[in-house]
Predict the structure.
Amino acid sequence: MTQAITFTVQPGGHLQGQVRVPGDKSISHRSIMLGAIAEGVTHVTGFLEGDDALATLRAFQMMGVQIEGPDNGAVTIHGVGLDGLQAPKEPMYLGNSGTSMRLLSGLLAGQKFDSVLTGDESLSGRPMRRVLDPLSKMGAKITATSAGTAPLNIKGQGLLHGAHYDMPIASAQVKSCLLLAGLYAEGETSVTEPAPTRDHTERMLSGFNYPVKQDANLVTITRQGQLSATNIDVPSDISSAAFFLVGASIAQNSDLTLLHVGINPTRTGIIDILKLMGANIELLNQRVIGGEPVADIRVQSADLQGVAIPEELVPLAIDEFPVIFIAAACAQGKTVLTGAEELRVKESDRIQVMADGLKILGVDAQPTADGMVIQGGEISGGEVISHGDHRIAMSFAIAGLKATDSIVIKNCANVNTSFPGFVAIIQKLGLNIVSEKNFLVLTIDGPSGAGKGTISRAVAKKLGWNYLDSGAIYRSLAIAVIDKKIDLQNVAAVAGVAEKMQLAFTCDAELKVTLDGADITARLPSEVTGSVASTIAAYPEIRAVLLQKQKDFCQDPGLVADGRDMGTVVFADAQTKVFLTASAAERAKRRFKQLKEKGIDANLDQITRDIELRDRRDSERKTAPLMPADDAIYLDSSDMNIEEVITKVTMLTVK
């Protein structure tokens, strides 16, 4: 689940010193996967302790693999052999990790057990047909949604049959998926790629003493023998180093050395492109560690120039383009990217999201179907949204080094998927950046009888969040006013009661409310209480007193707040806002049923009239009228059952 984290970057600064960035994410994933199905114990150092790689680690633990760590990058994997994995007892949740889902779909297709792969909202929107279609040619039985997205239900087939696949689009994930499936297939499995992609899977299979044939753009694997455990030293991730390569290039007086960086030739497009733009980059102390080329990289300030990026370099820098766009924005002249349509189906649509953000910062950035045209120049300040994409967030942070004003970046928590500790590291090197955690809030507003309380309580329980029923606060005040026989027209007296009342909420299966120590739960739903609550809620003075009482409910790990002005007034900056409604007739039926089940006498016609009257009163009042927030998601539940609404709202929140 994406946490509400905001980066604020002050303009200027430079990058100086030496740094070793976290381990390579691609290699970390594969070290777990191959170590788990190898014979013997594999020791890994430099493992990336980011959310994505940890999702892979947890998945194999769920399949019976004993894994110790990670502990400062050290992981010990007790391999179970090619046929030793066990059926997981529940679906394997992979968070935001597309690598985990696509590679595991290949590895699991040939197992003897069934499995289910799920992910967060972002991953659940990413295309999986690109692996499902070729896997089906090998005999795999995997079902997805009608859109070809997760969750993936994998029916274990035992041995698959080998096949050849000509990839229409260069993709290391597709290639690796099929090679892993080939470990569980009779005969040869081969893949032809239209352009070179990262070859970490092939290199690591060889490191585990498993034969792989490579002939130009053709890779072939045959089921034979076993994988033998080995030791793996994961180099620093060049995709993480990319932010510093660009940062030191665009910031004046920068001189930075990045240590122990993997420079696999299928990954060095970022270096090639920056050098074409005039970057001052030098590779030092080049060596080979565990079959992977490694170097220290020194980068100094340079005057970058816009270029037409060669399409043959696109697959070699596919993950680095968000920060390359920042380099282009700081360069003199025009930069043109084509042949990169793959960027539109990453964690976000990286072409559109980066173009939108650059425009906010005053940069002339024109998105195209397969790339972007950027006219370099000055970067101003502003507020941009990362859309939960870790590389977008870090790229706009780097832009602060060349900006003329502060940059605020929203929705940055997914930085932890690939680069835990990013803020602390880049602060030490010279960027003025602050990371602020905001409380997570889901607001559910809507008219009376829409089911806000039922849905909100269920979602809060599902998420493990706190719960606020704002209506219960107003109804509690109504009960206090009734008991004290306060004239409803005496606003000052009502406000005085509101200030002094002591409320306590407990929420298990049902909400329990105590007012000044007395349990008033049974009195909350009465029609008299509701009528008084609606009357006093129209007074601005009353709403002002109760506003802070409602805000006090906002605590870790998050809050689900239901009411009528939660998203427009009380929590106007909430991350997710839902306006839940239903027809007046449907709401009346629900309220009637609810009251009857609680043994409260009620009249359906009267309830219908009351709801219609209350709708008019709530929507026409001058203070905080009932209306959806501009950024709220409108959800009509008239034709939905409770479980459908709960699932829908939860999915809107978990993103």
